[in-house]
């Protein structure tokens, strides 16, 4: 456990020991510095008039240092102004902001708002990474493989790949090798294993069979990523999720439907731990 985790656990322990959670802060008013985010305490309803109320945003700027996984702004369902405010806070604190599921109409306003920074757009996964000019992405030597059963599964797979890359891993991708033409899988999978991947993410919709096939073949952990690709009785990813959960192949863990972020974070945490162990063994 790192020092940041120790500090957070100690802080929570102290807060819980002071009585009803948050009692000490109920009458506080606060203004967040470094972004356009201002909030008014819910304990002061008389101030929450239509003209003064501002929606609060609280991006977790210390998450990566504490947890090993970055804070990620989920763009869907948020107003563009909220996304910009949160990204500003993350940029100020960490030098980088990652936004997933960006709404198409928010792309140009984000470009304009962050003209002085590097804005990278991943069209397949509808994700944006904004970095300060002097930001340097860390390298951990962790190695993650990402496989998709079909091309329709690429958006979820690409989201997972992006997150693993941003967590410092080297990522290898194989797309369109599903069980309907299983002969397409073996040579690229063999090459991926020869590269020394520490963990493999497998995205699949429809019947969701590919993760079980791969988990039965490889000596590394496999993370099943069911996608909402399919139709009929088990459509919208339900059949894929249930198939992966029902697997008889050992070593397969499963995230929720279309949860590329969760798959990428889990894979990168595994790969980065393996990379640390390799480094210690070599010393």
From TrEMBL:
Residue intervals of the PurE domain: 142-280
Pfam family, one: AIRC
Superkingdom to which the source organism belongs: Bacteria
InterPro entries in the cross-refs: P2CMN_synthase_LarB (IPR039476), PurE_dom (IPR000031)
Molecular function terms, GO-annotated: hydrolase activity
A GO biological process held by the record: 'de novo' IMP biosynthetic process
Protein name as it appears in the record: PurE domain-containing protein
Lineage: Bacteria, Bacillati, Chloroflexota, Ktedonobacteria, Ktedonobacterales
């Amino acid at each position: 456990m790192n020092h940041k985790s120790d500090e957070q656990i100690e802080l929570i322990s102290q807060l819980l020991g002071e009585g009803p959670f948050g009692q000490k802060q109920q009458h506080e008013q606060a203004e967040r510095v470094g972004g356009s985010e201002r909030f008014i305490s819910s304990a002061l309803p008389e101030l929450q008039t239509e003209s003064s109320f501002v929606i609060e945003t609280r991006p977790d700027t210390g998450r990566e240092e504490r947890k090993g996984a970055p804070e990620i702004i989920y763009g869907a369902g948020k107003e563009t102004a909220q996304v910009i405010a949160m990204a500003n806070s993350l940029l100020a604190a960490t030098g980088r902001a990652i936004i997933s599921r960006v709404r198409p109409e928010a792309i140009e306003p984000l470009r304009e708002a962050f003209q002085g920074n590097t804005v990278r757009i991943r069209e397949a996964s509808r994700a944006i990474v904004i970095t300060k000019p002097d930001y340097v992405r860390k390298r951990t030597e962790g190695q993650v493989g990402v496989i998709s059963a079909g091309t329709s599964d690429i958006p979820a797979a690409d989201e997972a790949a992006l997150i693993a890359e941003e967590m410092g891993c080297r990522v290898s991708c194989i797309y369109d090798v599903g069980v309907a033409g299983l002969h397409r899988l073996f040579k690229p999978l063999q090459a991926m294993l020869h590269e020394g991947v520490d963990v493999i993410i497998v995205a699949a919709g429809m019947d969701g069979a590919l993760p079980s096939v791969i988990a039965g073949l490889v000596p590394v952990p496999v993370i099943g990523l069911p996608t909402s690709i399919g139709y009929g009785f088990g459509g919208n990813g339900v059949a894929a999720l249930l198939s992966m959960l029902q697997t008889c192949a050992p070593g397969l863990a499963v995230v929720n439907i279309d949860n590329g972020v969760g798959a990428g974070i889990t894979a990168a945490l595994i790969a980065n731990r393996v990379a640390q162990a390799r480094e210690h063994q070599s010393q």
